[in-house]
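One example copied in:
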Amino acid sequence: MKNPVNNKPKYNPWMLYGGIIFILFAISLTTGGGSFGGNKTIGLSTFYKYLDGNQVEKVVFNNSSAQVFLNETAKNTAEHQKDNKPTLLSSMSKGPDYVVEIANKDLFEEKLIQASNEGKIKEFSNEKESNWGSILLSLLPIILIPVVWIFMMRRMGGGASGGGGGQIFSIGKSRARLFDEKNDSRVTFNDVAGLEGAKEEIQEIVEFLKNPEKYTSIGGKIPKGALLVGPPGTGKTLLAKAVAGEAQVPFFSLSGSDFVEMFVGVGASRVRDLFKQAKEKSPAIIFIDEIDAIGRARGKSNFSGSNDERENTLNQLLTEMDGFGTNTNVIVLAATNRAEILDKALMRAGRFDRQIYVDLPDVNERKQIFEVHLKKIKKVENLDVDFLAKQTPGFSGADIANVCNEAALTAARKGKTEVDKQDFLDAVDRIVGGLEKKNKIITPEEKYAIAIHEAGHATVSWLTEHAAPLVKVTIVPRGMSLGAAWYLPEERQIVRTEQMLDEMCATMGGRAAEKVIFDKISTGALSDLEKVNKQARAMVTIYGLNDSLGNITYYDSSGQSEYNFSKPYSEETAKLIDKEISGLIEGQYQRAIDLLTENKDKLIQLADLLCEKEVIFREDLEDIFGKRAFGTKEVIDITTENGSEVI
């Protein structure tokens, strides 16, 4: 059955505007043109002049004014043609030529009687002040207000479901979209690459609805809700689409913001209507995307008063999910990347029984995601998908889809008919670093300073054990940066103190190189300082990796700490934290200076090579420094456009 929402008539606002114009036009015709006809008001002396000159054919008057109609002979004179320029409305309504204001009606009528007896005027008549035109004109606002109100209500209720979208009060109807597997495009679990753990739990929910007796026969209860939690772009909504494609039950989909409206009580009304529809079609699934729009914890930063519309909506949702008269054949799926701010009552068992964490994909899952997106791209044969997966650590599923699209655009921009490995490398560089700006004006002194800075990063990372392996270094401006160094970090589940310190040392290598070579520092290390400050603060205040404070953390994973408006430590501890952070950063900065001082000649050689080639790779560092002595990191071959081999 098709969703009734899609069959609603579309209301065109121009129909309303056309109706208003028609009403005004009809009134103008009824009133004889009025001020719309462009008629000129004249004085009594001028009127008597026209009357004595046998130019007036007809006069219609009331207590305050008179409408003057000239004869055909007078109308053709230059004087009257100049005064009364014809308009479309005046020609259609055949209104008066002039309007005269009357001071004394009796004297005016006597003058007309005398002129009629003398044959100067053919006819005249006395009408009442209030005619039908003036009555309609006075009633126009009363007529238009309900017309505009009905039109607005129809527009606001046009997206509601449940057959009431064309009525005024359909604004309280649910805006959920009922998924129709026969007419809508289907996404199945085969289209969801990676996410094996999350997929397994989601598939079990589908099985609950397809074969409930399998679980209820031994006393089990079907879960009432499952919350998909994870970073943006990891595939939470895609999993819900797969459920809609796989489950052979009605699937209602909507966003958390669909409950929000400017009118009081609308959100709660839409929740009630949503669950009413779902229960009528049970077993069914309801999917609420971005549920944090209505599920935020109550009582936190609430300055809008006790009658808060969002809280009313949340209260109704809590009641529908687990309250009196609820139906267990309706399962609620929801997705958010801010689970820490959700209300505790929403997260308890009996409402969202399961929390399914959708994490960033690992290298094997990234390979599967690449294989899904590469099906739609014309690529070269034998493209190394393993290589692409290893080149994109920390990328989400949405990022990988973007890489594939950017690679196709890059190949098309170069006039290629197939996408090759270099196009994917360029796409990764484009996404991570930004667009190349080769035409940016940089002086030779600035270029050499940038080369020294980037060479410092490359040198320190090469000489430290736990720093990420270098891929390439460039001084071609990209995005907001003037140069960049690309690394291939290991995918670690835990990070040790020495690993974080080596990374901080490599990050400070750029500023340390400027100090060693120029004995001066510049503003070019802003992003480096920001990064190491975050790392050092996390080591001290979150992970407890410090000597002064010990095993203490001030991190609140729930996001609902009682210390919302104050620091969870004393001023003395704050000073100790600042001192510890400064000590960590300065220690690694000095360590980088010492390493670069010992290898100053090689640093300058690397910077000169970077100025010459603008882009250097790992093999160039091996020629200068020799083989890297640390670790047994996996070697990856990269063939670039100029034939260079990158590890």
Observations:
- Residues 602 and 624 are 7 Å apart (CA to CA).
